């Protein structure tokens, strides 16, 4: 009985608050590295993926994948080979857990900074990042993406990418910009 009580105190008094604290620290860190963690709603993701006209077997990359919901939906519904990267370590572990629970194949979540991610060999790149981050990323996208890559920026336009703009999904808050390189 005493052991059980100690276990309860350990879990609720120490382990769970510690996990929340680690999660919170990462949420603060990512505010300064690219974008705060703000997940895209399921309904909007469905609109975006429909607009992307994804095909089975295409290579999909999500820069700053959060809880992996966009990548998981793209893999589940359209059969793409999905990769999500994020520097928020708890969210990457959570994404892996959800992908495993959904029994998804051809899906990978990596702990990685988007500025050091190799962007070559992807058919579709999806992101929801701050304008300042998109501005810094612009030259890298242009240099590394193959011709024909579809770059989808949710929320904000990529300055300097106007010549590649093909579609805008308009919304009151957070439109989505589709660029074809
Ligand atoms: C606005 S959220 C978008 C999450 C997800 N893409 C979605 O649409 O639901 C931005 C994500 O970018 C991640 N992030 C911020 N800076 C990053 C960086 N330098 N490298 C990788 N990921 C980063 C954050 O941790 C966060 O999960």
Automatic annotation (TrEMBL):
One of its GO terms (biological process) is methylation. Residues 55-138 form the Methyltransferase domain. Signal peptide: none annotated. It comes from the Bacteria. InterPro entries: FAM173A/B, Methyltranfer_dom, SAM-dependent_MTases_sf. GO terms for molecular function: protein-lysine N-methyltransferase activity. The chain crosses the membrane at residues 6-30. The keyword Transferase applies. Keywords: Membrane, Methyltransferase, S-adenosyl-L-methionine, Transferase, Transmembrane, Transmembrane helix. This is Methyltransferase domain-containing protein. It comes from Candidatus Daviesbacteria bacterium RIFCSPHIGHO2_02_FULL_43_12.
